[in-house]
Amino acid sequence: MRDLTQGNITSILLRFAIPIVFSRVFQLCYNLADTRIIGSALGDSSLAAISASSTFYQLLLTFLTGLTSGFAIVVARYFGAHDERPFRQAVAGTFRWGLFIGLSLTVLSLLSLPWMLQLLNIDAALLPESRTYIQLVLFGLILSALYNLCAGVLYGVGDSFTPLIFLIIGTTGNIALDILFVMVLPWGVAGAAVGTVLAQGFTAVGCLLYMLLHYPSLRLQKADFTVEPAITTDLLKTGFSCGLMQSMISLGSLTLQITINGLGETYIVAQTAARRISEILMMPFLALASAVGTFTSQNLGSGKLQRVRAGYQQSIVLLWAWCAVVLIISYTVSPWLVQLITATQSQATIDAAVLYLRVDTLFYFTLPLIIVSRQTLQSLGEQITPVISSGIECVGKVIIAFTLARQIGYLGIILAEPIVWFIMVIPLLISLKKRMPPAK
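The structure corresponding to this sequence follows.
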């Protein structure tokens, strides 16, 4: 456990965020392993099949990740206040509600899958493999929820290293299982899905057991599950706000996928590659924002409001420096990265993915203001504005993309994101100015 209410702020944020960066990278590798191995062993058609439907799974997973990050904000606040009884109740409520919601989403997603596959406008030739893959990975949704619950609690008490270790182990196992089930046995796309689910299960159970063995204060008793109504309300309010915020972002991507699916295999694979690379490049944004969220919550619970302001400001400066690095990567090695991820030999696919990256990264400087502001507002107890901003992103991205795609094709889809970034940051900055503790 780590107390974030004392010490050098920049050092604290970096030490907390760096393991999260690697955690997110290895979590992303679950999908990258499928992408690379399927692209190499089965070809672009099978890769397009899993890409066409995987956005539905990502939507559900993003909601659960947001939900658990909201729970972690509450856990961190009680941990920072150094009050053990409500802290243990917050942890108990986190697992009770997180597992219930995760199981409910698993059942509902499987029941609604036929309708969702039809909505995604997947080409008939790709549909059989798409259905096989998505059905299997949805069974692993509850395992992802369990891991994220454990990771969220550990983040809340200042431990960002333990989740990283288990993700490294799980990702390594996932790659090995994909090679076994796809390239050796061979089970096709079903093998990639089974490998991912098995690796997720090991990661979740392993992280839970380690947490219980090494943190006595997290070994919950029956009495801890009698949670005060105020704590339950705080958990659900913050958790659903963060979950809705994150899922609205993914919902916009899901809706865009419908348009991209209609453009054909070349653009499906190009979008998959570009989004995977973008997710890697955005890891520092998300990791530092997560660090700021825990930092803000602990210091808010401890009453150290000036550290809250300083943490926000220093994180923005750090991420603007990263934006410069991203531009260099985008304009030098992006074609190689596209080939590395997809194993495609299509120059048209490579060119489309590179165009996406080189346009979007020009506007990345707005992302620190968006991502860190949302997380800071959530930690300060403002749940409405981040959801409104994410709603603007979801609706605006779809409207702009549909409008421009008719005029200029795939470039219109690319431009939708930068345009909407400039719109959605406005309410965040206005709300943050009102909420942020005043400077001395």
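The mean pLDDT is 86.
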